[in-house]
Amino acid sequence: MRSRALLLSLFAAAAAASHVHPHFAGQPQHQQPITEHDETDITASLGVDHTQVRLIELKPGVTKRVTEKEKWELKKTGANFMDITDYEDFYLTTASKDVYKYPPQPQHEDIIRPLLAKLDSARMRKNLEKFTSFHTRYYRSHYGADSSSWLLSQVNETAAANPLISVAPFVHDWGQNSIIAHVPPSAEAKVSGEDSSKDSSTTRIVIGAHQDSVNLLFPMFLRSPGADDDGSGTVTILEAFRVLVGAAFPLKNPVEFHWYSAEEGGLLGSQAIFTAYSKKGYKVGAMLQQDMTGYVKKTLDAGRPESVGVITDFVDPDLTAFIKKVVSTYCDIPYVETKCGYACSDHASASKAGYQSAFVIESSFDYSDDKIHTTEDKIEYLSFDHMLQHAKLTLALALELGLADLRT
């Protein structure tokens, strides 16, 4: 077997030749091809079994069995899917969930608007600079585990301002853990000695982003800064979490912030969490995914107004309608309706488990970042002013629904 040093040299050369691939698909146009023999040697040297058979869902009810290697080849073509291998039986018996009604209009502008001024784009930049400094955040790599540990330390540091908040890793067997921060509905939960994060009677509001990144040319090895996908969403919701923690309002509903592992592998981390929630009988009143929040260049180059992309397919229509109202009330830019297909981000895991979910992105999907999944997904191409708008939406929605009387 080749030495690791030789393999590093081989792929360092390949990385140097890499360029930008088409939107959400394909390998970099000027990337030197990697032969099947090279890939087999390298995956073996890193302990990855690419012959393992997985079950993926490409559309609702449309499944296919593929090898791990075929799964990544499929992703290169631009296909979205959920890897449901570990949850096939669960999805056959998923119980129906409560369907919640949302307020007709935002109700708490007097409380929320002053807090929006506390959101800090410079802090988001600092966090993203560190987050993208990891060679990759691929979920099976030690870099992915290291980046997750760093992120957990930041979430813990932020939560320390309020001892009632609980933060915990959600452990996965692939090495990179998801992270859950739980803001309880009132001080009573922990004062009485009970941890509300394990209370199945309360209705949680969930804000999510995925922390992993991937270089589709060779996930296990090549650099993948993942600034936009989804480092931008990760630091966006982290900043909203920081301001929410400092506000210390007595919430009616617990609010959770999730940073998912292994989204790029088929929504693996978020599926693990939402299937666990369903099995435990946890109620989720709403779930919003923030995936890619920083790229606006193609929108502006096309002469279109900077806007928040509100996904309208495979989402809950009532929650999506309320999110549009939140954007119109609290953001300085409008929203644009757009579509991204089935299983295009972690909100699909919530939906699959029976929970109401929604997804927002940086722009109309046609104008979203075409540098993702390559070495070129860098901070220099992002707008932190635009990310600030997504942070405003995140904070406003968390508080509007955290303070709402949610009814079924």
UniProtKB/TrEMBL annotation:
Required cofactor names: Zn(2+)
Domain Peptidase M28 residue range list: 199-397
EC main group: hydrolase
Family matches, as SUPFAM superfamilies: Zn-dependent exopeptidases (SSF53187)
Keywords: Aminopeptidase, Disulfide bond, Hydrolase, Metal-binding, Protease, Signal, Zinc
Family listed: Belongs to the peptidase M28 family. M28E subfamily.
Domain of life per record: Eukaryota
The name this protein goes by in its record: Peptide hydrolase
Listed GO MF terms: aminopeptidase activity; metal ion binding; metalloexopeptidase activity
EC number, as in UniProt: 3.4.-.-
Record text on subunit structure and interactions: Monomer.
GO biological process terms held by the UniProt record: proteolysis
Keyword Ligase: no
Span of the signal peptide: 1-17
Source species of the chain: Drechslerella stenobrocha 248
